[in-house]
Design goal:
Largest sheet: 9 strands, mixed
Helix content: 25-40%
Structural class: alpha/beta
Strand order of the largest sheet: 10-9-8-11-13-15-16-14-12
Radius of gyration: 21 Å
Number of helices: 12
Number of strands: 16
């Protein structure tokens, strides 16, 4: 006779979450965007990311979920038995399907709801649970942006938090903000965010992400100094991939490429050395080769690029949030030595010692990149900082 499960955990998956990431669409909301992403060669990732969490859940946890790719497919991939309590209305998953699934799982008496998706999915969970939600929920990150504070930092971290909750050990419940950004505005290069409400989240230290915060207004001279250091590392004529963010955007302008994308990944070629450049200025005039690059455009570059990234303010994410165009294959081919981490001293200080975070989509690569990295904070200045998955 088997023992009774120690806890009942629900799972709902948004199978199209993150579909637009690899193809540079800055989100996956809406049927038209999803069709475009598939036409550009995107492959769904959410089912596999949920399965990565389920493989690490304790065996005595009862799993309750939704039929098909909204949950059962992940359970099957993870080799876990699951009780099906809801079947979606059609083949294509909609926001209404997610809300209906959440209500069914809540009615089934789950004590913790895991949902796999992004900020849009978090909004659907909030809508389904009502204005005063009491059911604890935790997001398995699978979207493109994920600025809300309701997600684990990694699918494996989601399993750690869920296991601790099931064992009644070390977890505290907190109200966490659900924030979403206007994807149409993002594609036009404008950043527009809104707070939609709060969900109750089980928290373990360093395993649940912070909300994304804006820039605190760095020293106006910092981007020029960082750009000069980057130019020296890359060298005249070298290729440079610049990730999204206000820091890299300012660095691109200092490199002589003011038309760079604020929210995408750009490929630049640095110009020839300028013998008259001052020590604090860039020594090159960069040219943008590809603006808002897709993963497929980066597979056959004429030379190995350097990759310059800046962590997301407040969260500390370096890889896996808004820059999924940088695939594990590309990162392996480029190598750790060509990964340039850029941050002002103020941005690092705001992290209060929390590590820079990795979620590349490949757990083995995350483990390989974990360790310490030198962060470029200015011309001839830097700091050694920890990377963690």
């Amino acid at each position: 006779m088997t023992s009774a499960p120690s806890a009942r955990i629900g799972l709902v998956v948004n199978p199209v979450a993150g579909l637009g990431g690899r193809v540079g669409l800055k989100g996956s909301d809406g049927a038209e965007v999803q069709r475009r992403a598939l036409a550009l060669g995107a492959h769904p990732q959410a089912v596999a990311r949920a399965a990565l969490t389920l493989r690490r859940l304790p065996s005595d946890v009862e799993l309750v979920t939704v039929d098909g790719p909204m949950g059962a497919s992940s359970a099957q991939a993870a080799g876990r038995p699951a009780r099906i309590v809801h079947r979606p209305s059609g083949a294509a998953t909609t926001a209404a399907d997610t809300r209906a699934a959440v209500r069914a799982l809540a009615a089934a008496g789950v004590g913790l709801l895991l949902f796999c998706g992004g900020d849009g999915t978090a909004r659907d969970v909030l809508d389904a649970l009502g204005p005063d939600p009491r059911l604890p929920v935790l997001g398995i990150p699978a979207g493109v942006k994920m600025h809300s504070a309701v997600f684990a930092v990694h699918p494996r971290a989601a399993a750690e938090v869920a296991a601790a909750w099931a064992a009644g050990r070390g977890v505290r419940l907190e109200d966490a903000e659900v924030v979403d950004r206007d994807e149409a505005a993002l594609r036009a290069g404008r950043v527009s965010a809104r707070l939609y409400g709060r969900l109750t989240v089980p928290v373990l230290p360093a395993r649940v992400q912070q909300r994304k915060t804006g820039s605190s207004g760095p020293d106006p001279g910092a981007p020029a100094g960082i750009a000069a250091e980057v130019a020296e590392r890359v060298g005249p004529g070298g290729l440079l991939l610049l990730g999204p963010g206000s820091t890299t955007y300012a660095v691109a302008a200092a490199l002589g490429a003011p038309g760079a994308s604020l929210t995408g990944v750009d490929l630049l070629r640095l110009g020839p050395a300028n013998a008259n450049a001052t020590a604090a200025a860039t020594a090159t005039a960069a040219r943008i080769l590809i603006r808002d690059a897709r993963a497929d455009q980066l597979r056959a570059l004429p030379a190995t690029p350097h990759i310059a990234l800046s962590p997301i303010g407040g969260q500390g994410f370096l890889l896996g949030r808004g820059n999924q165009q940088l695939t594990p294959e590309l990162l392996r081919a480029t190598g750790r030595d060509r990964l340039l981490v850029l941050a002002t001293e103020a941005k690092l200080a705001a992290l209060a010692g929390r590590p820079l975070l990795l979620d590349t989509g490949d757990p083995d690569l995350d483990d390989a990149l974990t360790g310490h990295v030198r962060v470029i904070t200015g011309r001839r200045s830097g700091a050694v900082y920890r990377l963690s998955a």
